[in-house]
Write a structure and sequence with these properties.
This protein has helices at about 5-15, 20-30, 35-50, 75-80, 90-95, 125-135, 145-160, 185-190, and strands at about 55, 60-65, 80-85, 105, 140, 165-170, 195. The protein is an alpha/beta fold.
Amino acid sequence: MELPKIIQDAVSSFTKLAGVGEKTAIRQILQITRWKKEDIAQFSHAIDRIQEIKRCEKCRAFTDDRICSICANPKRAQSKLMCVVENDMDMMAIERSGQYFGLYHILGGVLNPLMGIGPDELEIYKLLDRIKNEGINEIILAINPSVEGDATCAYIKKIVSENVLVERIGFGIPIGGSLEYLDGMTISKALENKQRL
């Protein structure tokens, strides 16, 4: 049986999502066909508005405003503590742990010369500017453990001023693991067991 082109197009779009294969996409689309027209319109509008999303001018987190609520929080700024992460999901995972109360900086990836990702692509100069301009005196590198993650941490440690304490998140996290899939307790323990570099 061949599905109508409208459903085929929707399935094709859904399969672009990580972890969604054709069968899952078909199930999801067929479920949506049972929704009320208003719900479908609301869903469609919400997806369409993703194009309008902004990034915080300081930490690069998603935000509705120019500066995110974390960077705008004076208590967090006064901590003079910054956690450097690879992506938004990692930042959200650390926030869920409820054990960290400083600022963040999202790199947007890790150094990977084979893929053409160097310090300029990650805009590491913005991290250095923030450390200097915001008077940061301690950095926690919450970068996932991998060859590229280790190289990124070593590079950041090398270029940051000696006056700044640089620590790396503890390794209660399995090698090859990803912060976004860990529970709050594991992340909490990893933060407690951070190591000086």
